[in-house]
Amino acid sequence: xxxCEMCGKEASLVLATLERxxxxxxxxxxxxxTVKKLPAVAVATISKPASPEPEYILVENYSSLxxxxxxxxxxxxxxxAKFLNEKESLIHKWEAGALKLDVxxxxxxxxxxxLRLVRLEETAPxxxxxxxxxxxxxxxxVKVRKRTLS
Length: 150
Prior knowledge:
The chain has 150 residues and is an alpha+beta fold. The chain has 2 domains: 1-42, no CATH class; 55-121, 434 Repressor (Amino-terminal Domain). Helices cover 37% and strands 15% of the residues. It has helices at residues 27-30, 62-72, 77-84, 88-96, 103-113, 138-149, and strands spanning 14-18, 21-25, 34-37, 55-58, 118-121. A 3-stranded antiparallel sheet has the order 2-1-3. A hairpin with a 2-residue loop joins strand 1 (14-18) and strand 2. It is elongated and about 75 Å long. The two termini are 34 Å apart.
C-alpha cells in the first residue's frame, strides 16, 4: 500500500495541492490543502519487470591497446586527435592511463581503429527492497527539523 508523502501513513492516497505543491497524501493530510483528484478505484495492473540495461566497462589495458593501434595505423597523436575531433592532450592522457575514457568515446575509437576497448560487465542482478518505514516523508523532515532547532 502506498505511503502518504506528508505523514508516512500507509493508506489510500489522494492528489492534493498543499502550499502550491501537488502531493499524494492521505485523507487526514488532505484537509490541509485542496484536493485535486480523489482516489481511483483499484485496478490491477501487470507490468513487465524492468530488464536491467547492460553495463559496459573499459578493458584494463585500454591505454596500451590504444597506443599500439594508433601507431599501427601510423597516426601521430596530433593526427589522431584531429580525426576524433578531440584535443591532442586528451589523446596523450588516455595513452598514458592518466585519464579514463568514457564508454561513448571508447566506442568511437573502437570503430575508427578496429579494436575492442569496451566489454560487457557480467554481474548478477541485484534486488533492492525498501519498506515504508525507511523512507523520509515531509512529516519526518519537519519532526527532525524541529528537534534540531530546539
